[in-house]
Amino acid sequence: MAIAVVGSTNIDMVAYAKVLPESGETVKGEDFILGFGGKGANQAVITARFGVNVYMVNSIGDDVFGETTLSNFAKENVNTQYVSKVSGPSGVAPIWVDGEGNNRIIVVPGANGKMTSEQVEAALNSIEDLEAVIGQFEIPTQVTAAAFKVAKAKGALTIFNPAPFEPIQDNLLQNCDWIIPNESEFAGLHPTGKKPIVDSEILELASYLKVNLCVTLGAAGAALVIDGKVHRVAAPIAKAVDTTGAGDCFVGTFTFGLISGLNPIQAAELGTKAASLSVTRLGTMASYPNTTEAQEMLNIVKSGS
After folding, report:
1. Cα(266)–Cα(68) distance, integer angstroms
2. Apex CA 12: angle with CA 85 and CA 268, to 5°?
3. Domain ranges of the chain
4. pTM above 0.85, yes or no
5. What is the pLDDT of residue 193?
6. Residues catalogued as catalytic
7. What would the CATH number be for the domain defined by 2-21+31-303?
8. What average pLDDT does this structure show over 8-32?
9. Which of 9, 93, 210, 247 would be a feasible disulfide site paired with 41, CB 3.0-4.6 Å?
């Protein structure tokens, strides 16, 4: 059983400050972390920690960041057979985190922007027992669309995270099984939607997109549409210190849950548990449940306790 993540890899440069600067202002920071990130890489790592075979499909630069990215994937048991090296810099993401754990992120794609449709088509066609493909908007959209077309032809589940937000093109949308936006991305997809997001708006968007929809709601958990009804899944109470990467943690965990036999509500419960733990720790991948914690969460969800 294999999952492929067709997406981005970045080096995260995270600065923490009680208050973030306004235009032209300098503030004193509290801490700094240089770590591994990128929405695709984040989703691949958390999925691998649940013990499944995960392939990363990506391009890295011919720089030190590219080499360290490969080393990190090896440590995390993510298969890098389909990670290619291209000339130029790898992707980076300068991140600011305030005293409440909220973040602001600038993503500089670098090598991620050099991924090609031919690259991902060849990769996915080579992977046996492919059960699911995860995609996002941090690589060229036409590349993700090509990946999902191959995935559907192979009978694999497709899960799309529309972040950073942009409109979803029809050639991508028609091959999406699940779309997982957060509240901001939901507002982009449903321009008349308001916070807090109400059930009627979730149903409207699911009907319009004609896909399975799961909306992540931060501390409020998640809401998903099943058989024309909205089901809300509460998140464990958590003191957030850094929300960076929490959405990716949910997406990867939710995907694992679906292909491992959980129903969608159980998969969302597992996702909220993993994401809620991640916000209590600093960093991105570094904040995710380790393999022991992941197994404990899975056992709890399976037992219904």
Report:
1. 35
2. 100
3. 2-21+31-303
4. yes
5. 66
6. 248
7. 3.40.1190.20
8. 94
9. 9
